Amino acid sequence: MDLPQKRKRISHELTNSQASNREAAPSTSTNVQAGGFVEGSIIRITMRNFLTYDHSEVFPGPKLNMIVGANGTGKSSIVCAICLGLAGKTSVLGRGDKVGLYVKRGCSKGSVEIELYRASGNLIITREIQVENNQSSWMLNKKHASQKAVEEAVKELHIQVGNLCQFLPQEKVGEFAKMSKIELLEATEKSVGPPEMYAFHCELKTFRTKERDLENVCKEKANFLEKAKQRNERNKLDVERYYMKKRHLDRIQMLEKKKPWVEYETARKEMEGVKKEREEMKRKLRSLKEAQEPLVRKIRSVESQLQPIEQQMKEMTARIREATQKCKQKHDQLEYRNKEVEDIRQDLSLKQTEEADRQKRIGHTQLMIKDLQKELQNMGTMEDVTPQIEAVNAELKNIQQEKDKLESEMMDLRRYKDEAFGEFNRLQNRLRSLEDMMRVKEDKLRGRFRDTYTALMWLRNNRDHFEGNVYEPMMLVINVREARHAKYIESHIPLNDLRAFVFQRQEDMERFMTEVRDKQRLRVNTVIAPAESCSKRPPSRPLETLQRYGFFSYLRELFDAPEEVMSYLCHQYKVNDVPIGTEKTKNMIEMVIREVQLRMIYTAEEKYTVKKSNYSNNVVSSNSALRPSQFLTDTIDADEKRQLEEQLKAADRQVKSIDQRMAAILEQQGKLDRRDNELRAKKKKLSELKGKKRQLEQKISTKQDSLRQMERNEINLGAIEEETNAKIAAVNKKKVAIMEEYLSHMQVKAKLSMEKVYLALQSAGLSAEKTKLETDCRDGSAELKRAEVAYTKLDQTKNNLLATCKTLMSKAIQICNMTPGETAVPEELHAAFSQLPDTLDEIDAMLNEEKTRAECFTGLSDAVVDEYNRREQEIQNMEKELDDKTNALTTYRRNIAEAKERWLNPLKQLVDQINERFSDFFRSMQCAGEVDLHSENEEEYDKYGIRIRVKFRSSTQLHELTPHHQSGGERSVSTMLYLMALQDLNRCPFRVVDEINQGMDPVNERRVFDIVVRTACGVNTSQYFFITPKLLQNLTYAEQMTILCVHNGPYMLPPNKWNEKAFIRRARRKQTH
């Protein structure tokens, strides 16, 4: 680099752990602003506790600003400061999503201050960032303001940090080539087009959307209108048929109204004829009744004589009934006394039978006593069986003791068996619980990785195909000791390895992959364990030396896994050398990174990766938040499972042993029970022999006592017979008195019966006379009865006809809608009734005919006519709406044509200018490139886009710039030249490009650099920031350039001791020597 050729204005940025920057003279800054800055250019950037900076100020120039520095020194931090200081979103930078992450680690807050050139007075924007709540406070010209006010102020200066055509940070360089043609057009419009161009474009897209909507609406309404007309045309015939049917129904209704009036008139005339016949029959009935009167008076006279006699006969009958009742009572008393005598004699007979029975029992008992005494004498010669009984008792006692002992042992065995069963069930339940947890992990595997789960099922069914150990996916065999630590393992081991199968032998893995990947087409991962086990490999340093930093364990100690799986993880991911820390570790993380010097560490909620810079040997760390665990939270203790399985086998053996012993005891008890029964039978037989003599003696004694008792109970039959005779005599005396009363009542009854006979004879004579008179009267009244029946029938007929007339009148009034009490036919119905038949038969015939005709019109209803009329109204409304929509569509098309002319012509001119500049740049590099406005349909304004086509070799054709066709360096060159083509056209005050030259080859990088210097340092160009970690030698520079050198290191001078001029003098002296 030739220092004397460069412009004297060189700005250096120096940083150390405290602060460093060059001091800027206010007077110099003012002159430069007046000389070259455009509206909205950046004059000053001040950073405090921001990313790598404690405190630093940057003073860029008005043209091209080249920011140079080694990786990790803080070049991109300046880009972040520009973006966030001008109210940009963190998503633009592609780094952390929280603004608090941009504050220097260990600080509670940081700030960015940017001074923008403005002709009316510079604008100073200050943003202070709080780490604790991830919030920001804003100031405009040292006065508090809202973020929205800052965004409005930035927008007024045409600054768009979210537009990749203006602001291209390092992490977004690759995304520029990924932008679609449509996105590139919008970004270009916003960046270099007139302010109204993008608004016109949006307006056009909105108009086109509404035009499409209106076209669809008009088309739909026209189709619907045509269908409605066709449908109504089809329904027109139905409506005509409906009105024809209605005329028939109206005639039917009028016939039904007249019919009750005709019926009423017919019934009324019939009732008048019946009334005349009834009056004539009434007069005839009256004359017949007068001719029967003398016979009736004679019958009444006989009835007056007969009535007292019948009354006396009733009284006689009552008195006879009373005398008969008294005779019956006396007869019952005699029967009772006879029964009483019979009972007395029965008692005597019982006493006699009892005495005879006593004598018989005494004789029988005496015989039994003699026989027992004889048998007792014969038993005196039998031997004594007591010793045999005692011997049997002793053996029975021994057997009982043995049975008690066996029963006690059986109870103990049952208790042991119950306990063993309880333990067995407990172990089974616990093992089942562990298996359920394993099943949950398998369900997660099946839901997330279906192919891996299918391969797992095949492995379990075909394990005999493999010679060495084959382990299921690591997420199933890894068992985290505490669920809260699962997040460390899942963050450290990639997901592809967590679902990988682990093999001990290479040939087993190849056999497995041939089956599941080649034959079954399953996507699975496999790994092979190291030949030499690494599972016991010690960490690089003892854990005790790290505990003071808050580390409590290495990652390997947080989980269990099979030998080969642990060996693979230690070999591949160094789980034996990754420490796990706590919140204490996070609070002192800078000290930990500096002193511990481990490549990877974990705190309570974060993962830290530590690297050393290849340029400066500085330590660079990055951190990321730990995600919650998904697969390893369900922990299964493998040792516990193995112990449970062994305990289950032991418990099963114990239960079987107890069952065998219980079976032996039951067999032994059966033998003892059989021997016990034999001895008890023998004892019973001996006891019977021994007790027989004693029983005989007891029986003899008992019989003698019974005999004495029977002899004492002797009955005195003589005394009892005398007492019985006395009782019978007393009862007979009472019977004589009763018989005398009975005879007296019988005499009274006979006398009354004779008197009743006399009265009956008198009644029979009078009754015969009455019968003769009634017979004579009956012959004369037959005609009278017939007359009465005829009169009653006529009267009933007249009443029925009257009721019928009233009913028919009510019916006629109701059908004709007349008021109650009105009996004349309304005038409006007279004309209609006069055209209809007057007889019922004719009316019924006409009704049947009209109903038959009406029934021919089927499937018709009022809804058909209502629908027809409603649709007619809808057709009129739709025709009006269609006219309105068609007029609106015409208006929109006229507006679109006007807006298109306002937008498309300037846009084509703008794209032509960009194409001209872009093509010139490529021609200067012996390549070819062009930019054009591309659209498949001129009317689809949301499909318009800018197409970039490039050619880097003469043997190829122009190809569209895509993320896949060109190389990374070619995409970088194309992106840079497109941005430079916008430079002269740009209405934005500055442009930022970060490390876009990293993928270029030296030739293209030199050519692009020359174009950048030539373009960015031209007349009437805006400010340009070009960030790069390195530059080629012997490049061509311009006087208008400003070079910002970013230095970073522990031995930097403090800002107040830095002297730029002294630094340049020393550099020149060193160059001359």
From TrEMBL:
It comes from the Eukaryota. It is found in: Chromosome, Telomere; Nucleus. Pfam families: SMC_N. Its main location: nucleus. InterPro entries: P-loop_NTPase, RecF/RecN/SMC_N. Transmembrane segments: none annotated. Keywords: ATP-binding, Chromosome, Coiled coil, Nucleotide-binding, Nucleus, Telomere. One of its GO terms (molecular function) is ATP binding. GO terms for cellular component: chromosome, telomeric region; nucleus; Smc5-Smc6 complex. One of its GO terms (biological process) is double-strand break repair via homologous recombination. Forms a heterodimer with smc6. Component of the SMC5-SMC6 complex which consists at least of smc5, smc6, nsmce2, nsmce1 and nsmce4a. Belongs to the SMC family. SMC5 subfamily. Core component of the SMC5-SMC6 complex, a complex involved in repair of DNA double-strand breaks by homologous recombination. The complex may promote sister chromatid homologous recombination by recruiting the SMC1-SMC3 cohesin complex to double-strand breaks. The complex is required for telomere maintenance via recombination and mediates sumoylation of shelterin complex (telosome) components. Required for sister chromatid cohesion during prometaphase and mitotic progression; the function seems to be independent of SMC6. This is Structural maintenance of chromosomes protein 5. It comes from Cirrhinus molitorella.
